[in-house]
Amino acid sequence: MPEWYGSFGGAYVPETLVPALKALEEAWRTARRDPAFKAELARLSREWGGRPTPLYFAENLTREIGGAQIYLKREDLVHGGAHKFNNALGQALLAKRLGKTRLIAETGAGQHGVATAMVGAKLALRTEVYMGSVDMERQKPNVLRMRLLGATVRPVDHGAKTLKEAINEAFRDWITNVQTTYYLIGSAVGPHPFPSIVSDFQSVIGKEILRQSKQAWGGHPDLVVACVGGGSNAIGTFQPMLRTPVKLLGVEAGGSGSSLAVGSASLTKGRPGVLQGMRTYLLQDAEGQVLETESIAAGLDYAGVGPEHAFLKESGRVEYTSVTDREALDAFHRLCRAEGILPALEPSHALAEAMRRARDLPKTARIVVTLSGRGDKDLEVVAQHAPPG
Ligand SMILES: *Cc1c(COP(=O)(O)O)cnc(C)c1O
Questions:
Q1: What is the pTM of this model?
Q2: Which of 73, 96, 106, 199 is catalytic?
Q3: Which of 127, 263, 365, 368 could form a disulfide with 151 if both were Cys (CB 3.0 to 4.6 A apart)?
Q4: Region for 259 from its dihedrals, namely left if φ exceeds 0, alpha if ψ lies in -120 to 50, beta otherwise
């Protein structure tokens, strides 16, 4: 479990949190070797979470595009409708192991809040979720879901009133209540050891892809594509493949795509800096002030990115690119009509880039796209935009 990924990562936190982070690292080191822990995680993932998820050949889409074969890793079929479950369950089991009685989390679009509320209910841990008041207004159904699952939603009313402020508030709570409380972070971000823990819990995605592709065609994929917000579904997909010859591609949100806009593309348009406990690529102005981000996909709307991605970008092992709101919307409609699947807008970014690459690859090549979640949460946003021409 590296504290640093090259010059990225680390743990930029106040003194008071250092013992808690050390205890967490220790708990995780022993848990991941403990057969009882692994069995419980596997059982709940299977029986409650619906794992393993299928690797699905998108035959109609492939035929329409006329290039490489496109496969989808169906994380949209996980309990709760997104890959967030994999991480929330793993960390909640760690919280139990550490003897904590209370979970706190932050959420932007509400997907991670819902996943945390689910595991809080199942494992009988009191759950409080910080959410910007602007996001609460934009994501009412998820606020209701969290409340129905027994969680308390705490509105955050300062700054831009969105995800960055919610994370700051969760850290503040954790510093005050660290004895009783587990901070269940929602992506592969934050101070060490969180990025490594989240990456490890999400690596079930990449392991299943390798196993399933071996079963399906006796080899590995040629290209694997995932969207990058904080970077958890992407790192979980890529981790088990880093030492294979598979080409890896991360796709960030390019926002409106105008020449001035940075969207939420920290890796493609940002510079290294320190935010929320880690050194990583950030969208910032000349003075180092963190910029406001924009994306049609709420789950990608974050100025930072997990430190392991920053390292994988600099080392050249993973290629990163960005896709605009419009391109993601077009890919969304394309998948709905070709395959009868409503994808979330976040993985629609990955899908758009995968379709572009498929055209230039031979029909024998195989691309796997991690479909990180389903689109039910995005119907209103999609309806507000013009349908495809
Ligand atoms: C939250 C979310 C994302 C972005 O988070 P990562 O940590 O980058 O994976 C992507 N897709 C869906 C469906 C999400 O809910």
A1: 0.97
A2: 106
A3: 127
A4: alpha
